[in-house]
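Researcher: Next entry in the queue.
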Amino acid sequence: MTVLHSAPATALHQGLKESGYLVDNASTGKDGIHLANQFDYDLIMLDVNLPEIDGWGVLERIRNENTETKIMMLSARGRLADKVKGLDLGADDYLVKPFEFPELLARTRTLLRRGNKVAISDKLKVADLELDPSRHRAYRGDTKINLTPKEFSLLHLLMRHTGEVLSRTQIISLVWDMNFDCDTNVVEVSIRRLRAKIDDAFENKLIHTLRGVGYTLEERD
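Model: Structure for this entry, 221 residues:
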């Protein structure tokens, strides 16, 4: 799931994560379009009031390329004309602010059930490594792997894109804040710690580095 919101860090983002969803956050319309074009989300929550490109423009651009991903519009504009505009442009739901968080969760569950995509509760598996997002658990064979929230998010990202090489910039933007300081070595440190937990004690290594390019998680002969 991705949340496109006018504020860089929101209670909405935190609430969704605490409810068991894996969430990417974009604070501008431009960043949101970039994420939507790059990754296959189950649901996009789209605020109308976005800088650079507003929610209407983001919705149109996403729908020009993607007709399947569910999109929920979030807006303080509660007039019938605004609701009709959002739905006519391709939104699947339109929620007027202020709203109660339980209602947003209920609508989220409804949209995800209605979609044809895999729900977030489905497990991911690569070789003998298994990730269960709904229970926030990871196993390597019969061994349970204890991960911090960031390590879990990083592993989930790598497993969602098994076999793809993700650059350091992509990882920073998707696991940490969109405007994170790119001079930091947080990705290298986090990859090293993740390897220590899921690879070091096992013969079959799954996390691989392509120097100067990025990181990938896959089973190799």
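Model: The chain has two domains: 2-114, 124-217.
Researcher: Noted, moving on.
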